[in-house]
Specification:
Blueprint lengths: L2 E11 L5 E11 L3 E5 L6 H8 L7 E6 L8 H7 E4 L11 H11 L4 H14 L15 H12 L6 E5 L7 H18 L2 E5 L3 H7 L2 E6 L2 E7 H8 L7 H11 L5
Parallel strand pairs: 3-7, 3-8, 5-6, 6-7
Antiparallel strand pairs: 1-2, 1-4, 8-9
Length: 251
Amino acid sequence: MSTAINIESLFKTYPDGTQALKGVNLSVEKGGFFALLGPNGAGKSTLIKLVTTLYKKDEGHLMIDGSDPDIDFKRVQRAIGVASQDNELDPGETVMALLRFQGRLFGLSKTEANKRAEELIDLFDLQPVSDKRTADLSGGNKRRLHCALALVHKPSILFLDEPTVGMDPLARSLFWEVITRLNREEGVTVFLTTQYLEEADKHASDMALIVDGSIHFAGTITGFKQLVHPQDASSLEESYLTYIKTLSPVC
């Protein structure tokens, strides 16, 4: 299978001297469902911002959907969709208006943008709030709108940063139905970060564990669980906690 994301010897140091990434090597298969896990401050957000072109690397090599962001930035931007916790929504605009505007930004005609907005409103069950201003949305609806906006241009790689924060259990269930369908039926590569490890355990197949700017494990979720608890059928959360505790001097 071809590679959607390939990272080699990636380093990033902040102006204050903090070394956020220390030679990260990582590969995500095209069409895969991948989870990046790690404690707060481990380097997850920095890595996400690098692979989504928000940060520039100091050293290393990065390929996104077969392109180097330093050489073909526009192609990489077209290939990725990003639902980040940092995304701000215009509080005065409605759900429908924002989706239409996003479509126009990506070069869709007015008719195409309207049609795509309607498709995404249906897909994420946002019909009841489509004419509401984003300032009046619940936290869960805001998160679903973030994901809808990330999909307007039909990217091949979708980055989800803590996507279900603020969602109630029913909304979370409906959200994952949409994402897994996109992954399985349309071949969208999903790159997930989450603190809800049961979600990663249920939906993702591959993972990496980053701690203190370095990758400590990369492989299948099943392989990680077997590595930590070879004799038990432990959950990802149990295995993660056990592993992290062994690194307590580092964490």
